[in-house]
Amino acid sequence: MSRTIEARILPTVRELGIGVTAYGVLSRGLLSSTGLQPLGTRDGRTRFPRFQEENLRRNWGLVRALEVIAKEKGATTAQLATAWVLYRGDDIIPLIGARNRQRLEESLSALDLTLTQEELAAIERAVPAEQVAGTRYAEAQMSALDSERSSGR
């Protein structure tokens, strides 16, 4: 759900012939099969702005829209999100974590998904980058990330 590298970083690394390892493509599980479940009080994700109250409610709306497209494809939201990243270019490799064998099999199945241009456009409409509510990290941490800085450095 974080796509800030698309504006400056991705064009630069492509110009230089450098590949990208995209980590966190499931947005800390928000785009997984458990993404729409309420967070427990001990869930560590609650410290991230994207998972706090109103932001989380707004993001759940985006996930639900993505879920509709995934169901039409016979896939999970995690598979669809991973396939979308794979379709962004051969120079982008999604880094997927799997806590158990079932999640690993689910993730690997994303390799078998074929997405049409219409489906890619539908995904873009379902989860527009500017509609994602909340940042990945707290403000102090965000300022330390090169991908999040507005000044060219």
- Taking all Cα atoms into account, the compactness measure Rg is 16 Å
Strand order of the largest sheet: 1-2
Helix content: 25-40%
Structural class: mainly alpha
* Residue-averaged pLDDT: 87
Beta content comes to 5-15%
User: N-to-C terminal Cα separation, in Å?
Assistant: 24 Å
The number of helical segments is 6
Count the strands? 2
Strand/helix succession:
HEHHEHHH
Identify low-pLDDT runs.
none
The biggest sheet amounts to: 2 strands, parallel
Shape: globular
Textual characterization of the structure:
- With 153 residues, this protein is mainly α.
- It has a domain at 60-130.
- Helices cover 40% and strands 5% of the residues.
- The chain has six helices and two strands.
- The longest helix has 21 residues, at 53-73.
Quick synopsis:
This protein is globular.
Topology:
Blueprint: H1 9-15, E1 20-23, H2 53-73, H3 77-86, E2 92-95, H4 101-109, H5 117-126, H6 139-142
Parallel strand pairs: 1-2
Helix pairs in contact: 2-3, 2-5
Question: What labels describe this entry?
Answer:
single chain, 153 residues, mainly alpha, two-stranded parallel sheet, 6 helices, 5% strand, globular
